[in-house]
Amino acid sequence: MENSFVIKNGYLYQNRKLLPSEIRITGEKIQTVETHISTTKEEFILDISEKKIYPGFINSHDHLLASFLPKIGGNTKHQSWLSYDNLYKSSGVFAERQQVDPEILYYLGAYKNLFSGVTSVFDHIPHTVQNPFRGILPVKLIADYTLAHSVGTYSLGWGEGPALEYRMAEHANLPFVTHLGEGLDEDSKQSLRLLEKMSALGEHSVLVHCLPFGPKEVQKIAEKNASVVWCPTSNLHIFGKTTNIKLFLDMGVNVCLGTDFSPSGANNLLEELKTAKAVYFESYGETLSEDTLLRMITENPKKAFRLGNPSSILQGQIADLIVVNDTSSKNEIQISNLEPKDIDLIVVDGYPIYGSVAYQNLFSHYQIQTESIFWGKEEKLVAGSPKRLLNQVSSSLGYKKELAFLPNFSK
Asked: What is the distance between the terminal CA atoms of the chain, rounded to a whole angstrom?
């Protein structure tokens, strides 16, 4: 018999509103979504006391193999990704990272994402690197895609070339993902023209960064129904500027949000949301709405990565969702102020993976072993053992290592 539980007394994000709702989860799927669900004595009931339920967040751009700190650079700004990459790979931090087993780095990156409410992440790397880690991490790796590293003179040789990779994406109805315009130099400025010349610009294209593009290029991207991933923290750290994102939004481009990799990016997706909102206000004197931000980490990436119905939380969907406990009114969408301590519960594929200590019985119901972690004085439970991972990193390096994207393991 499949495990099942009912979430009662919640406010569910549906049709871009928070509405009183209850959810029955059976196996890996959402079986029922109703205003009120009648339950039996045998069912496990989780009363969340009018907390909010959102779809699991999606980080649209990361490189989990680089889940290591501290950050590199930031003072000197670069014209291309290559000059920053050369700086990073000549650093002591990269030399340290190379001493850590790739599986540990993938787990660290997965927990980094999980602690900010992420249930799925796009790890931009060739399949041969990522394949061993699919299905074993606490978050899901978006597994079905074609790719290039980038388009231009110094692109890495990922995939079979943009032209063929895009045709494969069309044939199999997959996203074709590539860095594009990751810099301010002439090579970056000409990258969209080159991508179009390769017949690799279209509705399957997911274009990461797009820093130097103006109205003409953005209009072309909009006409082709391509998606764009915005990584403002990393852009500002490396280049001192970021994408003209208002231009993309005003022209109706499907915009997603990503953290990029740890050496230059945000510590987690919640931090990236704060940066995105602050940068938008500083750049345009306008407030980027909470609903727009929420869609950048839920509906928009589902559309970009072709993950099924982009609507909120529906009967029959895979149960990837989060419960949040914030201080705003129960009908108010408010995600840019969230901190990891505000994430009350995370469900991935129908299983509780992270949550408040008040839900210990839910983890026990699923026979999931947990470890206590702390955000300040706020204790949470998480499946697996990030503490053991950090100890393994320290053992590999020969000294105690701290990573800012991890919580404390004692009060």
From this structure: 39
- The CA dihedral of 176, 291, 346, 21, to the nearest 10 degrees, is -120
For residue range 390-400, list pLDDT tens digits in order.
999 999 999 99
SS3 call for 56: coil
- pLDDT, residue 1, reads 61
Query: Which of 377, 398, 388 has the alpha carbon at shortest distance from 111?
Result: 388
* Helix ranges (DSSP H) in 210-338: 215-223, 232-239, 245-250, 269-284, 290-296, 299-304
Residue in the structure block whose two tokens are 């790890």: 123
Pair of tokens at residue 287: 């407030």
Q: Token match 């205003």: residue?
A: 35
Question: In terms of DSSP bridges, do strands 227-230 and 205-209 run parallel, antiparallel, or are they unpaired?
Answer: parallel
pLDDT tens digits along 67-105: 999 999 999 999 999 999 999 999 999 999 999 999 999
Exposure of 329 by Cβ count < 10 A (0-12 exposed, 13-18 middle, 19+ buried)?
exposed
- Residue 47 is classified by DSSP as E
Question: In this predicted structure, what is the pLDDT of residue 42?
Answer: 86
Extract the tokens encoding 285: 């004197």
How many alpha carbons fall within 13 Å on the CB side of residue 218?
A: 20
- One-letter amino acid identity for 1? M
Query: How far apart are alpha carbons 312 and 300 in whole angstroms?
Result: 11
Q: Give the helix ranges, DSSP H, for 55-126.
A: 81-89, 92-97, 102-114
For the full predicted model, state whether its pTM sits above 0.90.
yes
| Distance (Å) of CA 258 to CA 62, 124, 262, 316 | 7, 11, 11, 27
Q: What is the DSSP letter of 289?
A: P
Backbone angles phi, psi at 193, to 5 degrees: -60, -40
Q: What's the CA gap between 221 and 41, in Å, rounded?
A: 54
For 283-335, what is each residue's pLDDT tens digit? Answer: 999 999 999 999 999 999 999 999 988 777 888 999 999 999 998 888 899 99
Task: Determine how many CB atoms are found less than 10 A away from the CB of residue 91.
Answer: 15
For 86, the 3-state DSSP assignment is helix
